């Protein structure tokens, strides 16, 4: 059989008319068209999307298929719209009888209704919109005839609860459409088999097709006249060099690790933009209209540079991007490689990237990352079993679609790879939670959410609850954000969102950066921050907590490995000298032991603990160690953490560190400390919202009645007091330990050093510890001290205002 | 006692860290917005099943406040129940506790917007109450003075800490909500502008009551 005969003539002719031949991996996908599951790993620009859709077009070419044939899922709404455009053109040119439509949160409801009754052949959607579709009673009719599902950017989805929700929805679809075949499209990943098992119906096999990865990327560190500063994350020193790079390329993407850093960099870039080059900014806190404008301008090739964050990471057509600049250490090699792979959107051309370390330590980290990229040593950590809060939501969605049988639902969800080993008892606990709340105290049974019917099936007690559940569907967790608009007589222009906690610190007259402009806070109206334009004034900075990525275990290990070298010819002179000086006055941290330096500084005793466990774990370590030090009478006053070390200061010198690092005591401290901690409360809010206990949206919600809703912290405190073994408390603990607390990496570090602790008592601060003093985010040791501070502040305020003199 | 003393219309009052108001001279304790039965009402109206412990927790704290002060009279300033049906649906154990607490003192239910009907638990019931120089009602009347009210669930922010707070000026006191499942309305909300004078105080509740000029 000839190689091209796999395609119907009409498609084959189209390829020929364009002078194109199909790529080997596209061919491989056609050959596997009837397999239950196939994962394609291909670089961007390799015709990956076409590879996913070619079998669909081939099957639809004769016009005999009725109803939905292929479902395409992408993590981004914009991507669905993009693909619709890019797919319609060849379909029209081939003259295929194929209807294509997209469906996202932005689709008008009239069109959505039509899609349910008369679905297109190819529907492009997101995990949330798909979950919503499966929650309708007519889901079986909507999905009738469905043959293929294409999951794009599955490497990104597989790292999040959105992916878990999607896989549960696919398990549902597989029941409705037993012949459903699954296709995953992925960027380069460390463990393709893990993604394959995640995608496939358990225990179906999944073929992995690896496309030619193309030439190795051209990545270097940006050379600047000025050396990077000792601390901080802004990389302002590199502005002139970055500007020169922008001028030398067509389109440059400038990635940042946080939104706040992107805003500051953009601000500084504009101040240096003497030629007024068209430069845009794009991050997740900006208003959708603004983001879309930047995306559209980028696709048209009108922008010379875009300052952005991970919000631009996925899928959007990167047009003529010929340079990617990463500001700040990449923290994670896999993400760096995926990002860089997107530059130079032509197949078989090397992509070009520059790393810009924001401070001296990041020079070392960037160097380690470059070596990892060259060695193709990607980092990744297994993600653990499917989260139960997502399962709870899935059970509620199933109930919206109609009465269900618990045994059948359990059998169905264990076909999702992430839930394949979920014990029945855990499923039952989730079902019980959805039905009654699952409390030790059985109260208000007559109002339970799900009720078991005489035939044994579960259904919603009140069918109207379905609307409420649908309103709260999804797993994306926003911190409490408030909208920012320009103050006008009516309908001021929306600029974006800031965190409510940040908004609360603002007083009229304060200025902050958003979308690259400095604005003045005017007031808060109906939970919208009103601002006016205020050029000129130096801004206070908007704090977006966003995600703070910790340096990966693999990258940390590479840095420690580099420290073993006798000299560092590959590092810039200034950084190599810094390390040499450290070796001279102290020593460099090693993988097999834990280095602690103690030294006096500024009248206080300091101890620097080089754990190399990543930012989050070092932060947790700081909290646990200071707690232990307080118990041991060492009077700690505060600490600060980076990805590689924690610096603690206090009144007493640390002379015997061994008792501090007893893993049992640390774990005990963790249990006690964690329970009342804000991290835990945040994790609880996430889990409780996804599991359906907290409803973000309710019908007929009052816009300005904040006293009607109460904080999720109260629910957490109540459960902790009266029902500490409740399912949600269990889920919360699991999440916190895996996520922000990152206790796993502390345990890993303690296992790595195996009791070997080197305490060096120095006369003064060491070269490696010095930058920590300049780090932002110092944490004072609280406790009884907090009330004392509040009281002192109270008295000062009363004094200032003259109110303390009033008769009482 | 852990409180902040001030004077309203000649009456010496104490704002307690628990959120209750103590009038020592009259041996009277006043609490507002208990919202007992909130989780039951939430579930009944098609919402999720909130942890059903708020009534127990609120009563625990109320009992502690009554014990510490040795109050002879308790005034509940309205919205004591999340609604009338929630009152009727209270578990027997909670009802017994309320009855027990009521036995040894004078107990006055003031009507709130959530619970206009008299509860079937006994005690006195009134739309408003005048005791000595002071008037107790659920929602503040801007024209009135020497007035103690609740309803708004005020809270105030100090440094980065936001807590339920008493709002106090020369004419009135607005109590924070005492119930466990209650949210708060910031003292800077426009709703308080016509009620509180320029020199009003916010007294943050907590381990120790913290008076500050009312944040606006």
From TrEMBL, chain A:
Classification via Pfam families: DEAD (PF00270), DEAD_assoc (PF08494), Helicase_C (PF00271), WHD_Lhr (PF19306)
* PANTHER family on file: ATP-DEPENDENT HELICASE LHR-RELATED-RELATED, LARGE ATP-DEPENDENT HELICASE-RELATED PROTEIN
Q: Which UniProt keywords apply?
A: ATP-binding, DNA damage, DNA repair, DNA-binding, Helicase, Hydrolase, Isomerase, Nucleotide-binding
Please report the organism this UniProt entry assigns to the protein.
Answer: Leisingera aquaemixtae
This enzyme's EC code(s)? 3.6.4.12
Record GO terms (molecular function): ATP binding; ATP hydrolysis activity; DNA binding; DNA helicase activity
Q: SUPFAM superfamilies under this entry?
A: P-loop containing nucleoside triphosphate hydrolases (SSF52540)
Protein name per its UniProtKB record:
ATP-dependent DNA helicase RecQ
- Which top EC class is named for this enzyme in its record? hydrolase
Transmembrane ranges, per UniProt, are none
Matching entries from InterPro entries are given as: ATP-dep_Helicase (IPR052511), DEAD/DEAH_box_helicase_dom (IPR011545), DEXH_lig_assoc (IPR026362), Helicase_ATP-bd (IPR014001), Helicase_C-like (IPR001650), Lhr-like (IPR017170), Lhr-like_DEAD/DEAH_assoc (IPR013701), Lhr_WH_dom (IPR045628)
User: Which residues does the UniProt record annotate as the domain Helicase ATP-binding?
Assistant: 29-207
From TrEMBL, chain B:
Report domain Calcineurin-like phosphoesterase positions: 27-123
Q: Print the keywords alphabetically.
A: Ligase
Q: What is this protein called?
A: Metallophosphoesterase, DNA ligase-associated
SUPFAM superfamilies in the cross-refs: Metallo-dependent phosphatases
**Which PANTHER family does the annotation name?**
BLR1149 PROTEIN
A single Pfam family it belongs to is: Metallophos
User: Which InterPro entries does the UniProt entry name for this protein?
Assistant: Calcineurin-like_PHP, Metallo-depent_PP-like, PdeM-like, Pesterase_MJ0037-like
NCBIfam families from the UniProt entry: P_estr_lig_assc (TIGR04123)
Record bears the keyword Ligase: yes
Q: Which GO terms describe its molecular function?
A: hydrolase activity; ligase activity
Q: So which domain of life are we looking at?
A: Bacteria
Species this chain originates from? Leisingera aquaemixtae
In its keyword annotation, does this UniProt entry include Electron transport?
A: no
């Amino acid at each position: 059989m000839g190689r091209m005969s796999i395609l119907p003539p009409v498609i084959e002719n189209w390829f020929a008319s364009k002078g194109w031949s199909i790529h080997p991996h596209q061919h491989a996908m056609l050959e596997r068209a009837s397999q239950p599951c196939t994962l394609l790993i291909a670089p961007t620009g390799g015709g990956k999307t076409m590879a996913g859709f070619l079998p669909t077009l081939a099957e639809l070419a004769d016009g005999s298929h009725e109803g939905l044939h292929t479902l395409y899922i992408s993590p981004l709404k914009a991507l669905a719209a993009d693909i619709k455009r890019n797919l319609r053109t060849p379909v029209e040119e081939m003259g295929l009888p194929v209807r294509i439509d997209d469906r996202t949160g932005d689709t008008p409801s009239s069109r959505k209704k039509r899609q349910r009754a008369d679905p297109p052949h190819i529907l492009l959607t997101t995990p949330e919109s798909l979950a919503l579709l499966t929650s309708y009673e007519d889901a079986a009719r909507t999905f009738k005839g469905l043959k293929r599902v294409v999951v794009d950017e599955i490497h990104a989805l597989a790292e999040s609860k959105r992916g878990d929700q999607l896989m549960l929805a696919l398990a549902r679809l597989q029941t409705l459409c037993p012949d459903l075949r699954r296709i995953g499209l992925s960027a380069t990943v460390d463990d393709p088999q893990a993604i394959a098992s995640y995608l496939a119906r358990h225990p179906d096999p999944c073929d992995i097709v690896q496309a030619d990865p193309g030439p190795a990327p051209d990545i270097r560190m940006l050379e600047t006249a000025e050396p990077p500063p000792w601390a901080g994350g802004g990389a302002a020193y590199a502005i002139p060099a970055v500007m020169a790079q922008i001028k030398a390329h067509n389109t440059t993407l400038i990635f940042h690790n946080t939104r706040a850093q992107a805003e500051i960099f953009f601000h500084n870039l504009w101040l240096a933009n003497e030629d007024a080059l068209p430069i845009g900014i794009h991050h997740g806190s900006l208003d959708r209209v603004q983001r879309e404008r930047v995306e559209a301008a980028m696709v048209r090739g009108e922008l010379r540079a875009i300052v952005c964050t991970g919000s631009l990471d996925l899928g959007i057509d990167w047009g003529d991007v010929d340079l990617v600049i990463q500001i700040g250490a990449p923290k994670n090699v896999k993400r760096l490689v995926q990002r860089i792979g997107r530059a130079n959107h032509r197949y078989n051309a090397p992509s070009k990237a520059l790393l810009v370390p924001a401070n001296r330590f990041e020079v070392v980290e960037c160097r380690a990352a470059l070596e990892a990229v060259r060695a193709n040593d990607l980092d990744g950590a297994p993600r653990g079993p499917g989260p139960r809060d997502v399962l709870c939501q899935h059970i509620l969605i199933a109930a919206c679609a109609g009465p269900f049988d618990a045994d059948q639902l359990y059998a169905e969800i264990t076909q999702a790879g992430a839930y394949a080993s979920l014990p029945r008892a855990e499923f039952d606990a989730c079902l019980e939670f959805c039905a009654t709340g699952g409390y030790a105290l059985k109260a208000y049974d007559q109002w339970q959410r799900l009720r078991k019917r005489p035939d044994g099936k579960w259904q919603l007690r009140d069918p109207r609850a379905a609307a409420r559940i649908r309103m709260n569907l999804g797993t994306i967790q926003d911190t409490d954000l408030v909208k920012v608009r320009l103050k006008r007589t009516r309908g001021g222009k929306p600029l974006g969102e800031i965190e409510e906690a940040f908004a609360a610190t603002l007083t009229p007259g304060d200025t902050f950066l958003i979308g690259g402009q400095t604005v003045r806070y005017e007031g808060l109206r109906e939970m919208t921050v009103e601002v006016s334009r205020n050029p000129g004034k130096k801004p206070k900075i908007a704090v977006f907590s966003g995600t703070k990525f910790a340096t990966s275990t693999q990258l940390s290990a590479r840095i420690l490995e580099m420290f073993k070298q006798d000299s560092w010819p590959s590092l810039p002179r200034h950084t190599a000298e810094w390390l040499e000086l450290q070796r001279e006055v102290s020593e460099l941290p090693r993988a097999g032991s834990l280095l602690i330096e103690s030294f006096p500084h500024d009248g206080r005793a300091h101890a620097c603990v080089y754990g190399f466990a990543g930012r989050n774990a070092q932060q947790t370590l700081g909290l646990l160690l200071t707690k232990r030090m307080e118990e041991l009478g060492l009077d700690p006053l505060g600490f600060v953490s980076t990805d590689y070390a924690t610096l603690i200061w206090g009144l007493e010198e640390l002379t015997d560190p061994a008792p501090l690092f007893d893993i049992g005591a640390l774990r005990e401290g963790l249990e006690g400390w964690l329970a009342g901690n804000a991290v835990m409360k945040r994790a609880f809010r996430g889990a409780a919202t996804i599991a359906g206990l907290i409803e973000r949206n309710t019908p007929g919600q009052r816009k300005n009645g904040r006293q009607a809703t109460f904080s999720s912290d109260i629910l957490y405190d109540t459960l902790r007091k009266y029902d500490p073994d409740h399912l949600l408390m269990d889920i919360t603990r699991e999440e916190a330990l895996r996520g922000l607390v990152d206790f796993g990496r502390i345990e890993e570090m303690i296992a790595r050093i195996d009791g070997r602790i080197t305490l060096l008592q120095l006369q003064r601060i060491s070269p490696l510890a010095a930058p920590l003093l300049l780090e932002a985010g110092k944490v004072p040791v609280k406790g009884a001290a907090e009330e004392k501070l509040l009281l002192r502040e109270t008295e000062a305020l009363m004094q200032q205002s003259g109110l303390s003199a009033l008769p009482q | 006692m852990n409180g902040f003393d001030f004077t309203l219309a000649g009456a010496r009052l104490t704002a307690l860290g628990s959120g209750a108001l103590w009038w020592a001279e009259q041996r009277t304790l006043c609490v507002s917005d208990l919202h007992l039965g909130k989780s039951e009402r939430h579930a009944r109206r098609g919402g999720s099943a909130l942890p059903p412990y708020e009534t127990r927790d609120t009563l625990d704290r109320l009992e502690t406040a009554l014990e510490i002060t040795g109050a002879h009279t308790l005034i509940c300033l309205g919205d004591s129940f999340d609604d009338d049906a929630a009152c009727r649906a209270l578990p027997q154990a909670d009802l017994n506790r309320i009855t027990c607490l009521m036995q040894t003192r004078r107990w006055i239910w003031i009507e709130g917007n959530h619970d206009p009907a008299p509860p079937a638990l006994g005690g006195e019931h009134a739309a408003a109450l005048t005791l000595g120089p002071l008037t107790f009602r659920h929602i503040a009347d801007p024209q009135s003075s020497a007035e103690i009210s609740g309803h708004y669930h005020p809270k105030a922010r100090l440094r980065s800490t936001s807590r339920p707070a008493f709002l106090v000026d020369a004419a009135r006191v607005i109590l924070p909500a005492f119930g466990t499942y209650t949210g708060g309305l910031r003292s800077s909300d426009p709703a308080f502008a016509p009620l509180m004078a320029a020199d009003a105080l916010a007294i943050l509740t907590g381990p120790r009551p913290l008076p500050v000029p009312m944040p606006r």
